[in-house]
Amino acid sequence: MAGKAQTITSPNKNIVLKFALNDKGTPTYELTYKNKPVIKTSKLGLETKDVPSFIEGFTISDTRQSTFDETWSPVMGEQKNIRNHYNELLVTLTQKAVDNRMLNIRFRVFDDGLGFRYEFPSQKNLNYFIIKEEHTQFAMAGDHKAFWLPGDFDTQEYNTTTSNLSEIRGKMKAAVTPNVSQTTFSPTGVQTPLMMKSKDGLYINLHEAALVDYSCMSLNLDDKNMVFESFLTPDAIGDKGYMQAPTQSPWRTVIVSDKAGDILTSKLVYNLNEPTKYKDVSWIKPVKYIGVWWEMITGKSTWAYTDAENIQLGVTDYSKLKPNGKHGATTEHVKEYIDFAAKNGFDAVLVEGWNVGWEDWFGKTKDYVFDFVTPYPDFDVKELHRYAESKGVKIIMHHETSGSVRNYERHLDTAYKFMVENGYNAVKSGYVGNMIPRGEHHYGQWLVNHYLYAVTQAAKYKIMVNAHEAIRPTGLNRTYPNLMANEAARGMEYESFGGNNPDHLTILPFTRQIGGPMDYTPGIFQTKISAYNPQNTSFVHTTLTKQLALYVTMYSPLQMAADLPETYNKFMDAFQFIKDVAVDWDDTWVIEAEPGDYITMARKAKGKNEWYVGAITDENPRTATIKFDYLPKGKNYIATIYADGKDASYDKNPQSYTIRTMKVNSKTVLKQWLASSGGAAISIKEDTKN
Fold it and tell me: What are residue 626's phi and psi, to 5 degrees?
């Protein structure tokens, strides 16, 4: 059996995986889609620091093939039911020169791609080991068009660069824009999820699934041979992972199709995660919220209560400090947000800057920077709990750590208990800045374990989590569904920090969102930031109706209407779409899509006969062809269409929009013009008169 090639196909036979050992006894694999090469012969293996490496000298001691087919229902999601159907090949390898040490490699081939992982069985000669580097290769079949972010151990908050693989090296310097914490590692290193398009029309996505107790994987490109190799995030002393058998790596994933829309609807990453660990999920619910946040992001208000510096928690007496007059999180101001939320049917209000410590929270590498329970003098926790409860609105807690994770873990249970006592059932956490313990990176094994610990501890208190600046998602919200959403990419806030590229939102669903929901915080109607802060000349690089479309194209069960209430009050006709749109879905259809250019999607609201459509484009105006063939046949519906005005454009006239209604049915095809970085949003409801 040694060296004998093994072949396995996807259930529909379109994808073929071949596994073999080369002449050195190194594991290799290759992947084809409809007879086109996706991954050419690529090596597998791990280099270890303290025991012989898992690289060569293997023989095949056993292979097993099996088939699995189930349908499962996520607690929340883009569709009510998800099919998990794959053929599996489990290869058992033996290193005879290392006392017959075993390594298993498990391959699962789906109709939309491949997942594989390393498994280290319990055995007499393998207990503890340290990973020096994982050497998993992805040999590409050509110089593909790629949508990439610079490889970085501390941030994903870059604009996506679109180029051929061969151009990455030349474009890397310009792609690495300043960030408050960043650590790049290679002139050809990129992040996952990585989206590519081949010259022969294949859409290929590389990522990982079920990242648990392991270091986050980036990809390093050999740009002479077009071979990517895994590059794990190191810890403070350069090690890549501390392992104890029996254990396994995360899944390495390849999603492939000749249709771009298939990438957007793929649930491969979720299917490679375990079912939920929770017996009771009744407390986990979708949330539509507003918040005291954008006014701080724009500079209109502040997180800090005073202009003082050199704050020491437990020592500084805030009652003796002069308020700066711009503090956002005051009792009265938060009540205004609660009133707006209650009046317009929102579930919750996020409040940032409510707790002591914001005066010198950043850039000082302070360990004891926040305590997560002590409010500023102008924020009455008990009164706001009473007031919000009387209005049927929840307040969302905010836990910024300033990267001081050791401090957060010390206070975590006390902070969660405080939340329960005061009526908070959801928290937005943040990890801005360099990590403490110093030298650790945002995406190393230590922090990967911390983020999951924060989520599982929150579950004990029935708290939902929205983590910002944490690890990019890998489908773990299937297993831990109180992980509602993450930021983990360049979000809306950057529109106040210089702006996002007009193509940004046509790429994120193909990259960042492959692993899970994003808290992008859409809904900005006042696109000139100077309207809130005359010193800030930045502007939002979309039209107003593109902001509406994002509630459909950017999936999250936790959706924010991020602008200020006083602005929404000026545009209540357009705001109606945000009030109406669902945040949890029965089904999703991609009507048309091309990464970097445009996306048009339709979704059916969970448990309702309502459908919503979002269409967006990049800087190029275009006419979207919107079909309605997903509607039940033989019935008429009323579509309310929120569209760019004839004179709209993102940079010159972003607030020009029209609203019209029309009857539609399953045979209707609508040609809808989209402005430069524009969009259209459609709500579809039953025609009760017909």
Answer: -105, 115
- How many CA atoms, within 13 angstroms, populate the side-chain half-sphere of residue 109? 24
Confidence of residue 63 (pLDDT cuts 50, 70, 90): very high
Q: Which residues contact 210 (CB under 8 A, 6 or more apart)?
A: 250, 251, 272, 273, 274, 474, 475, 476, 479
Of the candidates 521, 287, 520, the one whose C-alpha atom is nearest the C-alpha of residue 395 is 287
From CA 298, how far away is CA 529, in angstroms rounded? 6
pLDDT in tens, 389-436: 999 999 999 999 999 999 999 999 999 999 999 999 999 999 999 999
Task: Report whether 105 contacts 44 (CB < 8 A).
Answer: yes
Nearest to 157 by CA among 491, 450, 526: 491
Model pLDDT for residues 23-58, shown as the tens digit of each residue: 999 999 999 999 999 999 999 999 999 899 999 999
Q: How far apart are CA 508 and CA 601, in angstroms?
A: 14
Q: How far is CA 95 from CA 27, 73, 234, in A?
A: 11, 41, 27
Q: Which of 419, 570, 401, 471 lies closest to 207 in space, CA to CA?
A: 471
- Please give the radius of gyration of the chain, using alpha carbons only, rounded to the nearest integer: 25
Residue 487 CA to residue 489 CA, distance in Å, equals 6
- C-alpha closest to that of 33 among 194, 147, 141: 141
Separation CA 407–CA 361 (nearest Å):
13
Q: Are 654 and 669 in contact (CB under 8 A)?
A: no
pLDDT recorded at residue 2: 44
Catalytic residues: 493
Distance separating alpha carbons of residues 58 and 19, to the nearest angstrom: 13
Give kind and range of the element (H or E) at residue 20.
strand 15-21
Is pLDDT above 90 for 1? Answer: no
586-614 residues labelled b (16+ CB within 10 A) or e (exposed): bbbbbbbbebbbbbbbbbbbbeeebbbbb
CA atoms within 13 A on the CB side of 151: 21
Q: Is the pTM of this model over 0.85?
A: yes
Residue 317, SS3?
A: coil
Q: Which residues of 562-573 are buried (b: 16+ CB within 10 A; e: fewer)?
A: bbbbebbeebee
Do 257 and 271 form a contact (C-beta atoms < 8 A)? no
Contacts of 36 (CB under 8 A, 6+ apart): 141, 198, 200, 202
Residues 462 and 431 sit within 8 Å (Cβ to Cβ): no
pLDDT of residue 182: 98
DSSP state, 532? Answer: T
